[in-house]
Amino acid sequence: MKRKSILFLVSVLASISISAQVGMSDSTDFVVTSGETIRGVVKVNLERNDLMIRSGRHIYNWTADKVDQVSVLDPSTGERHEYLTGGFGMNEGSFFFEVLSVGQIVLLYREGLKFSQYDETTYPPFYILQDGVLHSLAQNKKEFMSLFDGDYASEMSDYFKSNDVDISDRMKLKQMFTHYNAKFSIPDHYYVTNR
Question: What pTM did the predictor assign?
């Protein structure tokens, strides 16, 4: 009887260990913090500027200033969402920004951003990151199109017209910036944080 109990206990512990290892290796979400990559199930809370990651038996809760990069797979759509953090020279705080396109011009998205508790300004949800500095995306066509100066200005103007790009349309902007950024090699580090 004692032998059966021990064998049963060993088999239960082995199955728990195997299922925990499978869950860890199958996880597609990850967080990069202080040069360390932690894999697990990630939930990002943009309102509070923090995230929770469940990795094995551990649960971590970090604010944006403790995180460099986040990658989350949306199970309902199969789409991967990448986030960067930083104040990018705007102030001392750090914020999560969703990365829509990476390359020569990094297109970021963040709704409802307020840079201080006293800030009454409503900022548009689109930002660009150039040379480590965050800029609000221009809302008028002429200023917006000036982003694509140089060799590709004419081509991007044609793209804008032929694809009926609306500066407030997330998908159209993502497609346009991805089209533009495909013309350049992606730098190793395309962002600079205020840390």
Answer: 0.76
